[in-house]
């Protein structure tokens, strides 16, 4: 994201932008971003974040007359005097932008419901009794609305090492609509949960000293250091409430800042371009995760695994990866970004051969990365198919993802050519 865009985001004011659209004869039309960063959270009758109606080409969501929706302003500023139940209540569509809130017994215009949160980010975590790969913990980053969990991100989490194996979520073309989102917020976490007795920001503050205690010197500098690396990217979501949930430390293991602003950003942006502008893929499943543990040599040249909690937990991942799966048309590909700015490419090339059978990055004309600079994080791509991965961890994750999405064969890369033609057309 350019400095100009970041500046515009930082300067964006809170505005009310009532949608311009022809009213339905009956029913409601609500803009999910209608009041900018003060739009109330609302869900459809299935208690899900709704997708906009493609007929309008904007962020408008339509409801039939008397159809149920849920409205909330989680963590509202108590001085704001929000007129409905802040934690959420059931409402009914009356007409156009008018709704009736059942618990509060109020009929009002949806755009009068300005939501001012006490602080950001605000999210909720809950666990499942089920397990994910390797018997790891399934944890959800969510909102609790009207007493029900509304899941946003599913984490497969290793509670022993305190490291997410992956984050799983769904994205689509609508995620590009929220251009005024301000991402300049701090990461947070839920105490007494996944991080046990650790306080994440304290661990980050001590990374240089901890590495020196491990006998590893000189790698953290003013220009190269460790930051939280979001697995689920905030701009893969549409609403502020969903985007803010990505600022959970549980979704953000250690990543070198040059990789974070380099090829991890490039991979994320490339996928986002394909989903939002390149071709209509519908709902796309994303799994974004970590693999192996990074090492750096000590003064004697011996590689040292980087566990930064001070007691053998919270490791620096050796790799970050991002798997995208679209069902219609069928497309699946997984990117791998090496999370170490201090290793030459020939060494990383050899390690990648222990992960995947073949690098297909050059086939993907829509993917833009920089493999000339080790600080950016050397990047590779792999076709997705059953048992196509060499690494056992990735093989199990990919096979399970294919099963969940009813895909069994390696999807064709002809779609990449179609997107390339589209790019050429745009340039001409």
UniProtKB/TrEMBL annotation:
Entry's Pfam families? Answer: Endonuclease_NS (PF01223)
Give the matching SUPFAM superfamilies: His-Me finger endonucleases
According to the record, the signal peptide region is 1-17
Tell me one GO molecular function of this protein: nucleic acid binding
Entry annotated with the keyword Signal: yes
UniProt xrefs under PANTHER family: ENDONUCLEASE RELATED (PTHR13966), ENDONUCLEASE-RELATED (PTHR13966:SF17)
This chain's protein is named DNA/RNA non-specific endonuclease
Q: Tell me what gene encodes this.
A: dsRNase2
């Amino acid at each position: 994201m350019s400095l100009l865009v970041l500046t515009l985001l930082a300067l964006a004011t809170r505005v009310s932008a009532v949608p311009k659209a022809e009213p339905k004869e009956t029913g409601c039309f609500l803009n999910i971003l209608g009041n900018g960063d003060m739009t109330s959270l609302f869900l459809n009758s299935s208690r899900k974040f709704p997708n906009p109606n493609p007929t309008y080409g904007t962020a408008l969501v339509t409801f039939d007359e008397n159809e149920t929706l849920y409205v909330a302003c989680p963590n509202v500023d108590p001085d704001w005097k929000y007129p409905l139940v802040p934690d959420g209540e059931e409402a009914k569509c009356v007409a156009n932008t008018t709704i009736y809130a059942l618990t509060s017994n109020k009929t009002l215009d949806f755009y009068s419901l300005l939501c001012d949160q006490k602080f950001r980010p605000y999210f909720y975590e809950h666990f499942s009794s089920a397990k994910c790969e390797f018997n790891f913990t399934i944890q959800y980053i969510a909102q609790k609305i009207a007493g029900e969990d509304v899941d946003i991100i599913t984490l497969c989490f290793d509670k022993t090492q305190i490291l997410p194996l992956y984050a799983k979520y769904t994205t689509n073309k609508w995620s590009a609509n929220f251009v005024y989102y301000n991402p300049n917020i701090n990461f947070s976490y839920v105490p007494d949960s996944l991080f046990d007795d650790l306080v994440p920001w304290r661990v980050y503050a001590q990374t240089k000293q901890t590495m020196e205690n491990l006998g590893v010197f000189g790698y953290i500098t003013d220009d190269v250091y460790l930051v939280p690396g979001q697995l689920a990217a905030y701009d893969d979501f549409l609403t502020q409430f969903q985007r803010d949930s990505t600022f959970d430390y549980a979704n953000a293991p250690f990543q070198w800042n040059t990789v974070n602003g380099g090829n991890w950003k490039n991979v994320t942006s490339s996928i986002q371009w394909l989903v939002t502008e390149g071709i209509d893929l519908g709902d796309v499943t994303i799994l974004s995760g970590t693999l192996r543990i990074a090492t750096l040599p000590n003064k004697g040249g011996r590689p040292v695994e980087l566990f930064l909690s001070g007691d053998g937990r919270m490791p620096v991942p050796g790799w970050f990866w991002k798997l995208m799966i679209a069902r219609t048309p069928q497309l699946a590909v997984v990117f791998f970004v090496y999370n170490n700015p201090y290793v030459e490419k020939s060494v990383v090339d050899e390690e990648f051969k222990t992960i995947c059978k073949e690098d297909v990055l050059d086939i993907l004309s829509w993917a833009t990365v920089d493999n000339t600079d080790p600080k950016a994080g050397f990047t590779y791509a792999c076709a997705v198919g059953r048992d196509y991965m060499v690494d056992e961890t990735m093989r199990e994750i990919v096979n399970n993802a294919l099963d969940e999405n009813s895909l069994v064969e390696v999807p064709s890369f002809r779609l990449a050519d179609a997107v390339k033609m589209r790019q050429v057309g745009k340039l001409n």
